[in-house]
Amino acid sequence: MAAEGRVLAPPLRPPSPGGGGAAVPGAVPEPLLAAEVLALDDEEDLEVFSKDTSLAEVNSFSSSVPISPSSMINQYKLEDEPELRDLFITVDDPESHITAIETFITYRVVTKTSRGEFDSSEYEVRRRYQDFLWLKSKLEEAHPTLIIPPLPEKFIMKGMVERFSDEFIETRRKALHKFLNRIADHPTLTFNEDFKIFLTAQAWELSSHKKQGPGLLSRMGQTVRAVASSVRGGGVKNRPEMFTEMNSYMEAFSQKINVLDKIAHRIYKEEREYFNEMKEYGPIHTLWSASEEDIAESLKGVASCIDKCCKATEKKMAGLSENLLPILHEYVLYSEILMFSEEIGKLEDKVECANNALKADWDRWKQNMQFDMRSTFTNVAENNLRYYEECLATWESFLASQRVELHMEEDSEDRP
Length: 416
Known about the structure:
mainly alpha; 3-stranded antiparallel β-sheet; 12 helices; elongated
């Protein structure tokens, strides 16, 4: 599908209140977040999402040649193709457990690997949310200067979905799957011993391991964190400029990503309301056709078009809930984590090696974030184009058929 295709609103849709929110994801024609989206508060903070990356560098092709979103994504994937992986993890098959004191969900974690430090090439274990929390805490202890991927919140926000509903469980499963694969793709975290135990140990073995005291790496991590806490708020002189820049970057990033997250949820809510109303609109035309013999076929045609647009809207909503919303929320959680990175900067030369590790991880995180944002918003734009073109084609086909019938009736009337 070419990007130059017309983007028209589907018929029968009421205007969005205020005319603002619902156009944001579909209005991003460029691979990076558009200025119109980011300039919600301060235009001077736009470099947050495009720092060190220019469109001229990314798109080194002629501007006269139209490029579709799919082509752009393919180009990025070719440029940013990761090295061959040797660790594959899947989180699936959620299972409910009800005991006398609690109800919880476990997930199957399947690991396939060709690494020599593993005794087998494939493992299958079951883990509950508390096990994921334990793993995250162990990674934070062992690697206090690295950026540990966020976990989904323990409790769902009120008013979103019911806890333990199918939607909640599936949303969490996807987040846990991404959490483990973020770790697996990290050049340092992937070789953490607790991570290996999490992937391979049976339930009783993991429980036994949890009861053991902290290892050497954990004690080192606690020492570094204790030093950071001791100088928190203190006026340490000559703090590295990198950490000041990092904190400023994250303040702006946090502001923008939180606004985008709220707008995306509002758009999804509006789409759901529109979808529910449209589901009722089609059957009305079908019932109407039963009492209007002269225009019965036309009314049935309208009902059919509405039904097709309804299905297209459902697919569009699925794209938002599966692609846009999880990515934005993941980076909302990242922004909360990284607002505390300034503590490491206060340690100065005492942990110069740790500072270098954080700097490298920071650069890696920014590259991943920029790629995720480019591909996510490009996918949203492409899905919007596909949606509007599908709705447009549906109604144009219906109108064409009506014109043909009208001409046939006129011809029959003109005949003697």
